[in-house]
Amino acid sequence: MGASPVDSIHHSLGTLLDYNKDTFPYKEFVLGVMFTVFLWEEYLRFRYYRKLCATEVPKALREHVSQETFDKAQAYGRDKARFGFVETVFNLVQNALSIVYDFMPWLWNLSGEVMFKLAGYGSEYEITQSIIFFVLLTVFSTIISLPFSLYQTFVIEERHGFNKQTLKLFISDIIKGHLIGGVIGMPFLAGFLKVIKLGGENFYLYVWLFMVAFQLIMVSIFPTFIQPLFNKFDPLPEGELRTMIEALASRISFPLTKLFVIDGSKRSGHSNAYFYGFFKNKRIVLYDTLLEHSNNEEVCATLAHELGHWACNHTIQMLVFAQIQLFAVFFLFSQFVNNKAMYTAFGFMDSTPTLIGFLLFQFLYSPVESVLQFFVNMNSRRNEFQADAYARDLGYARPLASGLVKLQLKNLGTMNPDWLHSMYHRSHPELVERLNAILTPARGSKVEKVE
């Protein structure tokens, strides 16, 4: 009997990975990649920061942006860039030290001691120990990152007029987030590890299916049960705007069932709008901050852009790509999960826990992930142009352009970008690029281009 398709794929791809994994310098490789990526991204940040120091409004935006607003946006960008540099250096040093001095083996052993003291279990209860490890790692990470979160929210965002949170709400969000994360994350982690244990050599297929199912469940319950724990959703009142949105949805056969306004201003002055739901049960959510600074035509134009993603199947496209990438990650992980040399290189001399193996593999996979993210961003920018074109073709060129300008001004977004920094980091095109694409004549129509 011939080999099964799964066995054939396993053998073919396994051949591509056929090198001496016992002598590979794992720790040195990870540290080298970390510092290489750091130097590259800081070079990009330096290029961007020079643009943020400019004092003259770019020619393309002079019609839309005052000198005062431009100066505010530049100052906001510089504050964020400086803060990002400090945070990145701190994280680099922290991660490097944790790898060099074997922090993960120490934390794994500590989780084993906690498990023994609490329940009297030994190392054979790997999944239980993994959950304790996950909890301890989350606690450590939260404590370490808390000063940065506080500074970003209550200094930078406060200084530039965006923060609306109180310290009480900030702390409440952290506590609620961790409680929900624990209620969902611990059973998920147990199931994830159990599937790998029971899946045998082809576990990557089963754990991938497990992840697909989990993602679909989370997409279903997050907006309905989890997000309302943090924000208030009110139906959009009857009136001209609701009538216009319903007419837009009917015009393009979008299966709109509910329209909500979310109290985004409770935490931030930034704006947004989105839709969610499966099949014939779609819901649209508008941030109250969007309604505050946009007129009805601009709100509809913004929604026409969002619905352009639906009409062009961008959500499905990105979902399919994400699942292909996820499958590849699990397959590649299956080639390393039992490699004792990898564990030994990072200080795990006596055990090869599956969760630890997956975390170590993430270190090794990070260069591939960086390259893939670059192409994901490229495709995302292409999708944004398509969604803009969809809104333009519906007759919303002018209100979409004015809405984007208002959104940029309201959010003090980047107004003097560096092309290389944007190409690497940004998932959305810059404002000038979008305006020129929106206002460029589609087929002989006379629409003025932004100069």
From TrEMBL:
Residues 49-232 form the CAAX prenyl protease 1 N-terminal domain. Binds 1 zinc ion per subunit. The active site is at E306, D388 (proton donor). Keywords: Endoplasmic reticulum, Hydrolase, Membrane, Metal-binding, Metalloprotease, Protease, Transmembrane, Transmembrane helix, Zinc. InterPro entries: CAXX_Prtase_1, Peptidase_M48, Peptidase_M48_N. GO terms for cellular component: endoplasmic reticulum membrane. It is found in: Endoplasmic reticulum membrane. GO terms for molecular function: metal ion binding; metalloendopeptidase activity. Its cofactor is Zn(2+). GO terms for biological process: CAAX-box protein processing. It comes from the Eukaryota. Residues 236-440 form the Peptidase M48 domain. The chain crosses the membrane at residues 24-41, 127-148, 169-193, 205-226, 318-336. Pfam families: Peptidase_M48, Peptidase_M48_N. Its EC number is 3.4.24.84. Zn(2+) binds at H305, H309, E384. It is a multi-pass membrane protein. It catalyses: Hydrolyzes the peptide bond -P2-(S-farnesyl or geranylgeranyl)C-P1'-P2'-P3'-COOH where P1' and P2' are amino acids with aliphatic side chains and P3' is any C-terminal residue. Proteolytically removes the C-terminal three residues of farnesylated proteins. Belongs to the peptidase M48A family. This is CAAX prenyl protease.
